[in-house]
Specification:
Pfam families: PDEase_II. GO terms for molecular function: 3',5'-cyclic-AMP phosphodiesterase activity; 3',5'-cyclic-GMP phosphodiesterase activity. One of its GO terms (biological process) is cAMP catabolic process. It comes from Echria macrotheca. There is one protein chain. With 609 residues, this protein is an alpha/beta fold. It has eleven helices and 22 strands. Helix content is 28%, strand content 18%. The longest helix has 35 residues. α2 crosses α3, α7 crosses α8 and α8 runs parallel beside α11. The N terminus is likely disordered.
Length: 609
């Protein structure tokens, strides 16, 4: 059904060069990304969807991985209508099957003259796996509809965090919103669920690929949870909680009422003071269990105006429940070369999140940037900088992307500093022998390296609450995570945490001004206040080495491509929203000088990386 790797890869490389393909050059590209949907609404014809494949794998059966599918089959058909030659099958030169020579599907052999039929061929035979960042409709709607219409010869794999799978089971494939097409709960069996382990499973991979799960020919994946605001029902704050990885639990799961098919998709927690001690968690669990027992003893009292199960606060009380929404970021790795990209779902900035988790992604990404393995980051930018903080709704704008890039740059600086300390230790050990003086120096330097790596692994490195110096440049402190923010809510896309907003972030609202359901902890801050909390960009330039010798350091994000997705169109006669966002991002980069390149994605665009 599909083509082999050699001829297809060569044709694709030629097409990429002709089309101005992005990346490290088509001849050396390892990954190929096709943009099916670059927007974030409100037009339903352009919402988030990407296709990713290994270039060396060609267009073999199952070689393409879909990442989100707000649009899908229709978008593929539209691209083919614009790129496949007219008159297919009507002459010897255009006989079928025909290998396309232009467009994002260059190198693919299509068996039909009709673009819709060829789109169906791609969907049924070349795409087996769908990686879903989170279960919002603009990221899943086409997958749901397309799967029912085109069954193919084997089930489609739907992969994501356990919370995402739970949402599909409870709210989509439930025989109410849509037939149960899954292979669970007596479904039709057209979809099989794949629950991914956050942070990667230690059972898979070796070396640099440890924790990565191979999901198609030549591609492996690792997933991290990120924060995307919270349910705004009855709440006066927006923020997020976090999910923890192995061996942890979420106290909110005790005493929660069932929603839908036996699980709670909204896990409410109190918005009161947080205590991280185990005794406090025990007290909280007892309170939750006591609350449930009281409700079971008085079932007639449940109803309008009565707290729902799991909520420890009633109507009109000062403390309201907080429900946090999970999204995710995928690391996609080319198995042979180790080349990687990161693709974010919807995400909010760490500086205004009640549970900042982007820093975990940046800590994972930093060594890959230093080694030159990370080629691009696909990240959303829903609004331009004119959007007020309390109207971001769990999304990013250019000033916050710049802020996140500065955090990433600081992590890169920390990684380079750790490598430099190791090299100093090695040189010192070689040159000085094992005298008592040099032994003390080696131990001290080894301790420095260990402490630095420990701080980075625990999220205290470049994003610690104290300023740090990397490569001779000091980064300003950024708000650390407020208290204990890593308890798991495995089966819910709403990841609730009992957290207290960081004191440096929260501010007082002026008297007489209220914004119910929309305000965030930083909604009360001015832009200047927010910018003052962000870290200084780690800049290139001379960095001190031993004995005052300086070495020219590269810009921290030199060569890294930042591809902007999920732009929300304003549908007015002014400048296009994406153009405004790109201009603002480039202005921030001109000021920060981090070395990254911003690219605005568009439908039908393909990037060779």
């Amino acid at each position: 059904m599909g083509d082999g790797g050699g001829e297809a890869a060569a044709a694709a490389a030629a097409a990429a060069a002709a089309n101005g393909g992005e990346g490290n050059g088509a001849s050396t590209a390892a990954l190929h990304v096709i943009v099916l949907g670059s927007g974030g609404g409100p037009l339903e014809s352009n919402v988030t969807a990407l296709l990713v494949r290994s270039v060396e794998s060609g267009w073999r059966r199952g070689s393409i991985v879909a990442l989100d599918a707000g649009v899908h089959l229709g978008a593929i058909a539209n691209i083919l209508k614009e790129t496949q030659p007219a008159g297919l099958g009507e002459s010897e030169e255009l006989s079928l099957p025909h290998t396309l020579t232009s467009g994002p599907f260059a190198g693919l052999s299509v068996p039909y003259r009709n673009p819709n039929a060829n789109a169906s061929h791609i969907h049924q035979n070349l795409i087996d796996t769908y990686l879903i960042t989170h279960p919002h409709l603009d990221h899943i709607s086409a997958f749901v509809i397309n799967t029912a219409g085109l069954t193919g010869g084997r089930p489609k794999r739907l992969a994501g965090l356990p919370s995402t799978i739970a949402a599909f089971k409870t709210h989509i494939f439930n025989n109410v919103i849509w037939p149960n097409l899954s292979d669970e709960n007596n479904g039709a069996g057209l979809v099989t669920y794949m629950r991914l382990v956050e942070g990667g499973s230690p059972a898979f991979g070796e070396g640099e690929g440890k924790g990565y799960l191979e999901i198609s020919d030549g591609l492996s994946v690792k997933i991290w949870g990120v924060s995307h605001g919270h349910c705004i029902e009855r709440h006066t704050h927006r923020g997020s909680g976090s999910s923890v990885r192995h061996g942890s639990f979420d106290a909110s799961s005790f005493g929660m009422g069932a929603v839908g098919m036996g699980m709670s998709l909204l896990s409410p927690r109190t918005n009161g003071p947080h205590h991280s001690s185990s005794s406090s968690l025990g007290v909280f669990m007892q309170q939750q269990q006591s609350q449930q027992a009281r409700e079971q003893q008085s079932p007639s009292q449940t109803g309008p105006g009565v707290p729902r199960p799991g909520s420890v606060s009633g109507p009109g009380t000062a403390s309201e429940s907080v429900c946090v929404y999970d999204s995710s970021a995928y690391f996609l790795r080319h198995v042979t070369t180790g080349r990687e990209i990161i693709v974010f779902g919807d995400v909010e900035p760490d500086s205004i999140s009640l549970s900042p988790r982007n820093k975990l992604v940046w800590a994972e990404a930093a060594p890959k940037i230093v080694s030159g393995k990370l080629a691009a980051i696909f990240i959303e930018c829903s609004f331009d900088d004119s959007q007020s903080v309390d109207r971001l709704f769990g999304h990013l704008s250019p000033r916050f992307i710049a802020e996140e890039m500065r955090s990433l740059a600081a992590e890169v600086g920390a990684e380079r500093e750790a490598i430099r300390l190791k090299e100093r230790e090695r040189l010192s050990s070689t040159a000085s022998g094992y005298g008592s003086g040099s032994e003390k120096k080696r131990k001290r330097q080894g301790s420095d390296v260990g402490a630095l790596l420990t701080r980075r692994k625990t999220g205290q490195g470049a994003s610690s609450t104290t300023g740090r110096t990397y490569g001779g440049v000091t980064s300003n402190p950024v708000p650390g995570p407020p208290g204990l923010h890593h308890a798991e809510s495995e089966d819910s896309p709403v990841s609730p945490k009992t957290v207290k907003p960081n004191g440096s972030v929260a501010a007082h609202r002026p008297e007489g001004t209220e914004s119910p359901h929309l305000a965030t902890p930083t909604a009360e801050l001015s832009l200047h206040d927010v910018e003052m909390m962000t870290p200084l960009g780690f800049r290139g330039g001379p960095g001190p080495l031993e004995d005052g010798v300086e070495s020219e350091l590269p810009l921290p994000l030199q060569g890294l491509k930042i591809v902007i997705i999920h732009v929300k169109d304003k549908l007015n006669e002014g400048p296009a929203a994406g153009d405004v966002i790109l201009e603002q991002l480039r202005a921030h980069e001109a000021e920060d000088m981090l070395g990254c390149e911003y690219i605005l994605s568009s439908v039908g665009q393909d990037l060779y990386l």
